Inverse folding.
C-alpha cells in the first residue's frame, strides 16, 4: 500500500524515502573496481569514503 504524499515542510524541504546498501571494501582499488562493475550493470551509485 502506497503511503500518502506529505506536503513540503515549512522550509520547503520535501522528504523522499530512499534505500541503499553499503559495501565495505578493503582498499581504494577494490572500491573502484566494484564501482565500475556495478555502474556497468546499470546501478545508480555514490562513492563514500569514511
Amino acid at each position: 500500500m502506497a503511503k500518502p504524499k506529505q506536503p513540503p515542510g515549512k522550509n520547503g524541504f520535501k522528504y523522499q524515502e530512499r534505500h541503499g546498501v553499503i559495501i565495505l571494501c578493503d582498499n581504494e582499488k577494490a572500491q573502484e573496481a566494484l564501482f565500475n562493475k556495478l555502474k556497468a550493470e546499470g546501478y545508480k551509485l555514490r562513492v563514500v569514503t569514511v
About this structure: The chain has one helix and no strands.
